[in-house]
Amino acid sequence: MAVKLRLARSGAKKNPFYRIVATDTRNPRDGRFIERLGYYDPKRKSSAVSIKVNHERLDYWLSVGATPSERVAKIIRTAKKEAEATQ
To answer: Which pTM value belongs to this model?
Structure first.
């Protein structure tokens, strides 16, 4: 089983909201997932509230070989940068 970290879309029409999930690569985008790791809200103006990630679980999944999608990798970099800035 290959695990991938990717976005699962939810929210209303023209008002997207994404959950960052760990899922099997064979599952569809909005289908079954193993674990919810956070969320991303592109419509929010303040970036501190628009991205929330559970860093402990994210690090675990990356350590066991889960591969993030391009967009999730970018979101992770942004979230880590913001977390470092607040400390």
So the answer is: 0.87
